Amino acid sequence: MMKNKFLIIFFILTFSLMMCSKNKDVIMMEEFQSSILDKNTIVLDVRTEEEYFGPLGHIENAILIPIQELQSRLDELNQFKNETIYVVCRSGQRSNVGKDILNANNFRAVNVDGGMISWRPENSER
């Protein structure tokens, strides 16, 4: 009986740690915009060019590499290997894929969940 309790506690703790560590690579747009974004923040926008210049706008100085081109254009980001790259898209779906591609290639990337539909344009938009 004691062994079963120990195993259950072990699995709960392991699962909790996994979930906490997983969330380190995701941030909500509101927190990103209010607490992290400044002129030195590396932002990668993985939307299409049409979306980037479209009605939702874009974050000033964001690097535009559409998600379908990201894998083949990773060299363009090598200068940022020692920095955190914040990945944005329209809603957070493509940026999550982009974050995974970057992290799998030894970059340090964070998905900005909520994407540009959660962006408040009064801050830092061109």
What is the CATH architecture assignment? 3-Layer(aba) Sandwich
Which class do the helix and strand fractions yield? alpha/beta
CATH topology: Oxidized Rhodanese, domain 1
Choose one word for the global shape. Answer: globular
Helix fraction, binned, reads 25-40%
Report low-confidence residues grouped into runs of 5 or more.
Answer: none
Strand order of the largest sheet: 1-5-4-2-3
Major sheet: 5 strands, parallel
Strand content: 15-25%
In round numbers, the mean pLDDT is 87
The count of domains is 1
Radius of gyration: 17 Å
- The helix-strand sequence is HEHEHEHEHE
Task: Supply the CATH superfamily name.
Answer: Rhodanese-like domain
Give the strand tally. Answer: 5
Number of helices: 5
Provide an overview of this structure.
It contains five helices and five strands, in the order H-E-H-E-H-E-H-E-H-E. With 126 residues, it is of the alpha/beta class. The protein has a single domain, classed as Oxidized Rhodanese, domain 1, CATH 3.40.250.10. The protein has a five-stranded parallel sheet with strand order 1-5-4-2-3. Helix 5 links the parallel strand 4 and strand 5 (108-113). The N and C termini lie far apart (63 Å). The mean pLDDT is 87.
